[in-house]
Design a protein that fits this description.
3 helices; mainly alpha
Length: 99
Amino acid sequence: MASRRRSPGYGLLLPVALLGFAAYFVFAAVQGEYGVFRRVELDATRETLEAELALLDAEVDRMRDRTRRLSDDYLDLDLLDERARMVLGVARIDEIVVE
């Protein structure tokens, strides 16, 4: 009766293969498209964009205020005078221009 002999490394093939698959999934969980490092990168990007959004919101509020102050309903004469002088580049004779 002949028996089959297995090579000495055959018994380690399945555990090594499973360990390889586990290593791949751990690598994908850390480095992959949806991994931990990508999450940290996205959080940093989100914080940067939120700061930029806050600056843009402040700019929009400032522009809305200036637009309202130059509207027909509420006219700020000082702002109108300032804008007219800036656009036209004129000054009165008794004024000193400091640049």
